[in-house]
Predict the structure.
Amino acid sequence: MAVESLISVLGQLQAAHIEMLQLGEQKKEAVVANKVDVLITLINQESKLAKKIELIEQQRMQAVHQFLEERGIKSKLNLTISELMRLVFDTEEKKRLYQAQTDLTDVLQQVKHINEVNQQLIKQSLSYIDFFLETMSFHAESEATYQNPLEKSYGVARSGLFDTRG
């Protein structure tokens, strides 16, 4: 019975991570479309989902401890699914547990990949903004208007939009 509970919890974890994957895809679209308000909403939803995943993870740990107790092991070790499968002797249960583990692992890999893509997109966006600000601040004062080369002032030219002198 504890194996069934564990497989059920792994299914819940997989479903929650599929939701996380969908949010990641939506975040990617929001970053590409430069929709900051949508991105903020998605980040808030992602935070709530992360809390939900934490609760499901606690249920998984309880299911693992229940499984161990049924097998006569009084340890409070937090074993991985691969380690638990060594203690499952019914081939059908072992097969279903392995499938649940594989499905969850696949979704986790996809979530990891979309998070890496989103991280790169955000870094590129920030680099573009930095480049744009540097370009704008460098040319804003020096080339905004025509200046006769003979009347060129030899004073110190400020190169930024903000006066940082204190």
In short: The chain has four helices and no strands. The mean pLDDT is 85. The helical segments are 2-32, 36-70, 81-85, 91-142.
